[in-house]
């Protein structure tokens, strides 16, 4: 596995170096890498999505779940530096898990308090790699981006600072189902819409793809967030013809289908990642979007914005909380994540970690 710079996601030509060849510190010297970085493997994950798509909530929950997965697999999990430990605790863990509150939006990178300018870096232990099974320490690096930084206004001035997207192993693009007009109409009066961002997810995705240009093709996890919101379709009375033109759809039957993969959790922590399960879920999510006349995102993924090289992507469905929050607090029933690890486990599977 490649040794990468955690700040730019670029591969480091000298994997035994203790400093980044791409970033300078406050004294103009090559920036030091976290302890144990030399010769390590780096898995780089970038978060993207429109404002209020749930990126911060997802990161808060999925890092907890990743820790549980790593420990279940017999390895260790720890923050790789003091910044990661402090930032995760102050901005994710305490507000959500201790105060049971909803996380505020990620601040734009231009703001002085934009903590996400630095990555969150986690040491997940050493793993056998290569034909000889030599042990290699592996780090997982997360970078979050405010929805405002991917919106059209002033985007060109931020393009260079977003170049790390092109070097990521995986980009998790979250989109809120309530941003789809058809879903919002169907659920009107049953789900709060005050947190829905004004930015079109398709525009945000288009800006992300423009950063990738004609040749960079990280894997994109096109992820329907807040899936518990969409599951509310099972509980409301809708006419059977309510769907895309020419489609007769009984939404209560569709969302109440207990045989569908979106009605079940993903792979067990102590087992391998189930590719067959994911293949079915991918097809189901694409079908749901088609029925809801919300195919612009998948259309963009099928036809490259620049160049001819196809995008690498798959569809996922997650819910960080398991239920919609109310009055700035999470549900009294607590936090019940649904399939949040699927995108991460998909990445780990193809990086041959745990499998």
UniProtKB/TrEMBL annotation:
<dbReference type="InterPro" id="IPR045528">
    <property type="entry name" value="DO-GTPase2"/>
</dbReference>
<feature type="domain" description="Double-GTPase 2">
    <location>
        <begin position="44"/>
        <end position="234"/>
    </location>
</feature>
<dbReference type="Pfam" id="PF19993">
    <property type="entry name" value="DO-GTPase2"/>
</dbReference>
<protein>
    <recommendedName>
        <fullName>Double-GTPase 2 domain-containing protein</fullName>
    </recommendedName>
</protein>
